[in-house]
Amino acid sequence: MEPRYPTMSSKTLLHLDSSILGGHSVSRQVSAAIVARLAAADPSLNVVYRDLAADPLPHATPASMPADHPLSGGKGDAASQQALDDFLAADIVVVGAPMYNFSIPTQLRAWIDRILVPGKTFAYRADGAVTGLAAGKRVIVALARGGNYADPAFAAVAEHAETYLRWVFGFVGIEPEFIVADGIAAGRREAALEGALRSAGELKAA
């Protein structure tokens, strides 16, 4: 995990990457551009970075969950608790999310398992409905996909990255924003990257 740099900023940005491709990754380049855009608009922004591929959380077990999770029995794992605490403390979350085999990387899924905690990020009401407890945060996802998903019929059966992340963040009360680079493995890598970087540079700062 990268070191934290405390500042006098009233806002904290949590930057997550999950691609296994290092410098070749499109999602990493786009997520970095998003963070650069927001940091340029607010130089006092406190940026916390976590590389989920280089420093992965383990697959979920009761013992590996945050101490705040009911499954942990009040004990839990320190790294998992830190992941939850970082999310709760963040005003803005930027997620680099490639699509692997039609869904998100397992490293990102393991992080999501740490932030979906009853009583912390969501709660069930007496009638069985869910209240998201993380409303007010801004989430921006840099999504890179190898194929093209412009056809709604194809996307409906094959796209389980953007749809999943929209549902997950919506479940905790957040409507995420997406900057998408499509066709990375279908002959559109440079055009897709250029378009996504342009969108990141035009991103609304506030």
Automatic annotation (TrEMBL):
Co-factor(s): FMN
EC number(s) reported in the record: 1.6.5.-, 1.7.1.17
In terms of superkingdom, the source organism counts as Bacteria
Q: How is the cofactor bound?
A: Binds 1 FMN per subunit.
The alphabetical list of record keywords is: Flavoprotein, FMN, NAD, Oxidoreductase
Catalysis: reaction(s): N,N-dimethyl-1,4-phenylenediamine + anthranilate + 2 NAD(+) = 2-(4-dimethylaminophenyl)diazenylbenzoate + 2 NADH + 2 H(+); 2 a quinone + NADH + H(+) = 2 a 1,4-benzosemiquinone + NAD(+)
Q: Which GO terms describe its molecular function?
A: electron transfer activity; FMN binding; oxidoreductase activity, acting on NAD(P)H as acceptor; oxidoreductase activity, acting on NAD(P)H, quinone or similar compound as acceptor
**Annotated ranges, domain Flavodoxin-like fold:** 11-201
Keyword Oxidoreductase on entry? yes
- The kind of enzyme this is, by top-level EC class, is oxidoreductase
Positions annotated to bind FMN? S19, S25, V26, S27, M99, Y100, N101, F102
Q: Is-annotated flag, keyword Oxidoreductase? A: yes
Q: What is the role of the protein in this entry?
A: Quinone reductase that provides resistance to thiol-specific stress caused by electrophilic quinones.
UniProt lists the family membership as follows:
Belongs to the azoreductase type 1 family.
Q: How does it assemble?
A: Homodimer.
Q: What is the name of this protein?
A: FMN dependent NADH:quinone oxidoreductase
Q: Which gene encodes it?
A: azoR2
